[in-house]
Amino acid sequence: MPQFITHLSALRLLALFALCLFVAPSAFAKFQLTPEMAGLSIMNEASVIEDANRQLTIDDIVKKDWAEFKPQEPNKTVKGMSTSAWWVMLDVENQTSLPITWVLEAIYTHTDYLNLYHIDSDGVVTMLLTGDKRAFSNRPIASESFAFPFTTAENSQEKIVMRFAYHEIGMIELSTRAWEKVAFHNHSSFTYYFYGCLFGAGLFVIIFTLIVHIPTRLPEYYWYIAYLTFVLANSLANTGLGHRFMWHDSAYLTDSAHIIITAFAFICALQFNRIFLQTKQFMPRADYLLKFLIALAISSILFYLSGYRGLSGKLLMLTSILLAVMPLIGLWAWKVLKRSDARWYVYAWSVWSVSMIVIVTRLAGVVEMSDLVLWISRMGLLLQTVLLGLALIDHVNVLRKEKQNSEDKLIASLENANTLLEEKVQARTAELELAHQEAVSMAETDVLTGIGNRRFFFSRGEEALQLAKRLEQPLSLVMIDIDHFKKINDTNGHAAGDIVIKHVAETCKQRLRSTDIHGRIGGEEFACILMGTNLDEAKIFVERLRKDIEGTAVASTLGAIKVTASFGISAMSAQDDHLEALLHRADEALYLAKSNGRNRFEFL
Predict the structure, then answer these.
(1) Cβ pair 158, 121 in contact under 8 A
(2) Domain residue spans of the chain
(3) Count of Cβ atoms closer than 10 Å to residue 101 Cβ
(4) How many whole angstroms separate alpha carbon 151 and alpha carbon 153?
(5) Residue 76 and residue 78: Cα distance in Å, rounded?
């Protein structure tokens, strides 16, 4: 038997329970003990009474008329948030020929005060006191649930009375079951194995997320990890493992951790939903709802800390029910907003909603309390966190694809811009080259005649002279001067003079080859460089040109103008290093031609 056992006054209690056992008519069915018990519910054979004022004592209970106790209805072990104390009465009977060692287990792990009174067949009364508000070391069996060991003699009958109560208010869950001793320990070992898998999987997901995804620095990952951490902490609190292994010396944490941690888990989950689905940008109405739920969860914490535990629990329950809309919001993002990464989100919150339905139906008494019901809700929460992890992985893949598509579009845009820029540069370069050529041409072109000007002639002539000397080819230079040009201007006007100049330039151009160089070097003076032409060939060319000029009259507004020209010829010699020497001789020859009567050529 456990250490914390109180023996009541034998004389007083023997008389009381003798009256209960043998005089008063029995109001209870008897729970039959067997050696094969493996978590059998005893509540169908139990009866309960509500002590609204929490003033009844065990003496009061045993003195009461048994008719005041009501048989416990099947699947109605949950009494909801209550300030009352609840008494459970049970007759147990061993009809076998051997003693039965068994364990009575109260499943719910958050009852503040649980008093058990055991009356054996000899009328000996043993009182066992446990609960969250009492030291864990005083528990009859070291278990996260409330377990009591018994040995019932063969062919005997015993009574068990239990009192469930809270310091102020709390969830009353009367589920109690019976185990054969070995079966109970086997069940505990098996449960711990599953707990290890549950928490190990949760820790693995947290570590995996930290290692793989935190470098992305996406805020939704931080909220996801916070949510998962609170889910695991909440599992520790709700299963009683936290009280047993971590904070068993803290009655406050044992009493409060599961409520406060649940509220924080809701807050992290809701904030994760807002960021993951981008509700503020794309679903503002849904975002208002999520903010409202966050406010409810925060309010539940504040009310709890302020002492309004009942209101706090109701707000948490309301928040959990309203969270069932999350699959609908995710479905809208998936199907309407075309968020492919929202599919895993929908699956995750659908699983969560199913788990919440199981929990709510259990609390409403629709579903009987059992290990299956408990594990469906617990594994549902674990599966939800795993599915949310998959949603985040899919989310990163979508972001990576969007980033890659954006980069590809940017690269294509840059390439197009570069191509366009190159085309513009090429076009601009061509324009500049053309402009340069036009500028050069304008700088080297005589405006009146359209042939090369003095600058052009001297620049190209010098190049031609150096090329001819390098190739050892003949070259001749011809100077041309229009005869009596001043008289033409004075007699016919400057406009007529311009016509004469253009006529002489055009006549020379028609006689010259494409390789020859032709330019206007003065008012009525022209010069030609004849490539590959010696002095004799130059004389023949000049004579023909002289006749062409002489043989054609120039029309003007004042009538036809007779035009002649004088020519000076010089041929390149080995001593001519620069154009100036050749030009000087041709100029002297031209002067000689003009002195000898004009309309002729001379050579030097």
Answers:
(1) yes
(2) 6-186, 213-402, 454-603
(3) 15
(4) 6
(5) 5
Lowest mean pLDDT among 302-306, 349-353, 502-506: 349-353
Pick the CATH number of 454-603 from 3.30.70.3400, 3.90.550.10, 3.40.30.10, 3.30.70.270: 3.30.70.270
Residue in this structure with the two tokens 């594994």, named with its chain if needed: 379
Burial class from Cβ neighbours inside 10 Å (0-12, 13-18, 19+) for residue 521 reads: buried
The bridge status of strand 78-82 relative to strand 70-71 is unpaired
Q: Residue 115 burial (CB < 10 Å; 0-12/13-18/19+)?
A: middle
Helical (H) or strand (E) element with 105: strand 100-106
Q: What are phi and psi of 4, to 5 degrees?
A: -85, 85
Compute φ and ψ for 51, nearest 5 degrees.
Answer: -105, 85
Strands 30-32 and 85-94: parallel
The predicted-structure confidence for 290-335, as pLDDT tens digits, reads as follows 999 999 999 999 998 988 888 888 898 888 888 888 899 989 988 8
Phi then psi dihedrals of residue 563, to 5 deg? -125, 135
Q: Name the phi and psi angles at 551, rounded to 5.
A: -85, 0
Q: With contact defined as beta carbons under 8 Å apart, do 115 and 59 qualify?
A: no
User: 601 pLDDT band (50/70/90 cuts)?
Assistant: very high
Dihedral of alpha carbons 431, 434, 440, 442, sign: negative
Give the separation between CA 30 and CA 45, rounded to whole angstroms. Answer: 6
When pLDDT is averaged across residues 461-474 and rounded to a whole number, the result is 91
Please write the tens of the pLDDT for every residue from 130-169.
Answer: 988 888 888 899 888 899 999 999 999 999 999 999 988 8
Q: How far apart are CA 115 and CA 133, in angstroms?
A: 12
The number of CA neighbours under 13 Å toward the Cβ of 140 is: 24
Q: How far apart are CA 172 and CA 174, in angstroms?
A: 6
**398 is written with which tokens?**
């979508």
Place of tokens 């080259």: 433
454-603 shares the fold of 6-186: no
CATH 2.60.40.2380 at 6-186, yes or no: yes
The encoded tokens of residue 225 equal 């990890």
H or E element at residue 218: none
Task: Answer yes or no: is pLDDT of 529 > 60.
Answer: yes
